[in-house]
């Protein structure tokens, strides 16, 4: 059955977007349709990151899209969100790559870096000439990064880094790693460091056997007596708050991205249900139980679109709080995963085949539910916000 994406907009959300926002969304949609959709199932099967798309995505301004200067596209947060939506309509792994490059590598350099770090790294990262990764999670510290064991020690005009990072997106393809470590000579304060990945003592080993995000590179990082000049410290970073500020940027993108995955699954299931006939030569779309699933999905997608858009407008107006972003990430990823499961069900046996995108999205979304703060950690962040009580 030939199924081509038609867009999902039940209550004219299109009318809430400006001309510029629609243009950005349509450009990203066309790019994904022409360049990612034709190759993604092969990439997913092979466990291959489509590196050939890095330069074309850079040329469209997707990296560091909402940052100011350094050749960045200077998109609004809503425009950036719409790009993320379209990328993840293609694949969560490709959206992940762009999230990391933009929100977790370029943003911390922009926010906490020196002028020299900014002018060295941001143009190269924006153009895709250099790739980056973000090392916060460790084998024993995921939801609780404050417990990290990675340490930096100041020795003369250098820092010496030791530690292990785990589950690091783009780890083995990165030229530079943003590493978060506690500084021994500064009372174990968390600071960010730029570590060029060809430095002695730095090693990245890919995680194999993933059933999720197969088109994304995920690695473990090992730092053994890695010496970097003191100029590689991000001078304006300080405390756990700094990496958490980066996470806000990435979680915001995920809140939009998940809508893209949900739209892909829903639209595929809707079209399939209209074509697939069972009993009395009638399409399964004519059955109440199937309609209930479709009605649930379009309602939840619509609510998610409104949530992401309002959080984006708050972000553009400088009024967003990190708890707003937690709500959008938590809700929209959960919603997308439920849509993937319901859509898989509507496709019956075909739902498990990679002739259709649904099972791939479902498997990807299991990671998206866990990374950038698990669903339950975001529950606790919202709970803390409304009760004032920390339940971590
Ligand atoms: P806590 O004491 O609550 O906070 C420490 C300081 O930070 C402040 N803060 C934040 N600031 C900005 N944005 C946020 N989201 C913030 N959350 C907290 C807080 O006010 C405090 O400030 P101050 O001035 O008092 O020092 O810290 P905690 O140790 O109790 O932990 C809180 C918790 C659990 C919410 C946090 O650690 C957390 O978010 N855990 C989840 C970890 C996580 O999300 N890891 C993601 C790793 S990166 C990743 O997954 C990339 S996937 C990439 C991809 O492929 O897309
Ligand atoms: P844990 O923290 O061990 O949690 C396990 C379970 O316990 C979860 O259900 C969690 O909700 C629950 N739990 C934990 N604490 C509590 C509590 N207080 N109350 C109730 N329940 C709790 N990290 C990076 O730094 N950079 C990256 O680029 C990156 N990319 C990733 C890519 C992929 C594909 C994946 C899967 C992960 C990536 N991560 C990355 C790591 C990710 O951020 C962590 O996996 C995530 O923060 C959860 O940590 P954990 O896996 O150690 O789970």
Structure description:
- Strands 1, 2, 3, 4, 5, 6 and 7 form a 7-stranded mixed β-sheet that branches.
- Helices cover 50% and strands 14% of the residues.
- With 392 residues, it is an alpha/beta fold.
- It has 3 domains: 13-126, Acyl-CoA dehydrogenase/oxidase, N-terminal domain (Butyryl-Coa Dehydrogenase, subunit A, domain 1), CATH 1.10.540.10; 132-232, Butyryl-CoA Dehydrogenase, subunit A, domain 2 (Beta Barrel); 241-387, Butyryl-CoA Dehydrogenase, subunit A, domain 3.
- The chain has helices at residues 19-46, 54-59, 77-90, 92-112, 115-126, 241-275, 288-316, 322-346, 358-370, 375-387, and strands at residues 132-135, 151-155, 158-169, 176-183, 189-196, 202-206, 218-229.
- The model has no long low-confidence stretch (mean pLDDT 98).
- It contains 10 helices and 7 strands.
- Bound molecules: 3-thiaglutaryl-CoA and flavin-adenine dinucleotide (FAD).
């Amino acid at each position: 059955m030939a199924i081509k994406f038609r867009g999902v907009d039940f209550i004219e959300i299109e009318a809430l977007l400006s001309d510029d926002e629609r243009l950005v969304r349509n450009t990203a949609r066309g790019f994904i349709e022409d360049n990612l959709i034709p190759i993604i199932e092969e990439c997913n099967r092979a466990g291959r990151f489509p590196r050939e798309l890095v330069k074309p995505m850079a040329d469209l301004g997707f990296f560091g899209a909402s940052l100011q200067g350094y050749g960045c596209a200077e998109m609004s947060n809503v425009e950036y969100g719409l790009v993320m939506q379209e990328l993840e309509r293609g694949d969560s792994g490709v959206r992940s790559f762009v999230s990391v490059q933009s929100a977790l590598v370029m943003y911390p350099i922009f926010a906490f870096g020196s002028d020299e770090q900014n002018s060295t790294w941001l143009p190269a990262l924006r153009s895709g000439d250099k790739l980056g990764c973000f090392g916060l999670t460790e084998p024993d510290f995921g939801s609780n990064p404050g417990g990290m064991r990675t340490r930096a020690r100041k020795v003369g005009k250098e820092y010496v880094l030791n530690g292990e990072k785990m589950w690091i997106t783009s780890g083995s393809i990165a030229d530079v790693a943003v590493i978060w470590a506690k500084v021994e000579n500064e009372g174990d304060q968390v600071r960010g460091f730029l570590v060029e990945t060809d430095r002695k003592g730095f090693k990245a080993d890919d995680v194999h056997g993933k059933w999720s995000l197969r088109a994304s590179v995920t690695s473990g990082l090992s730092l053994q007596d890695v010496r970097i000049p003191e100029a590689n410290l991000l001078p304006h970073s300080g405390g756990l708050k700094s990496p958490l500020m980066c996470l806000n940027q990435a979680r915001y993108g995920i809140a939009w991205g998940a809508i893209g995955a949900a739209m892909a699954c829903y639209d595929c299931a809707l079209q399939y249900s209209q074509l697939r006939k069972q009993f009395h030569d009638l399409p399964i779309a004519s059955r109440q139980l199937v309609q209930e699933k479709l009605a649930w999905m379009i309602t939840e997608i619509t609510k998610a679109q409104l949530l992401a858009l309002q959080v984006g407008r708050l972000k553009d107006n400088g009024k967003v709080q990190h708890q707003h972003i937690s709500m959008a990430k938590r809700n929209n990823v959960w919603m997308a995963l439920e849509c993937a499961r319901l859509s898989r069900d509507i496709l019956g046996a075909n739902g498990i085949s990679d002739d259709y995108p649904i099972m791939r999205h479902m498997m990807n979304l299991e990671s998206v539910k866990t990374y950038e703060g698990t669903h339950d950690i975001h529950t606790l962040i919202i709970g803390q916000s409304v009760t004032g009580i920390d339940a971590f």
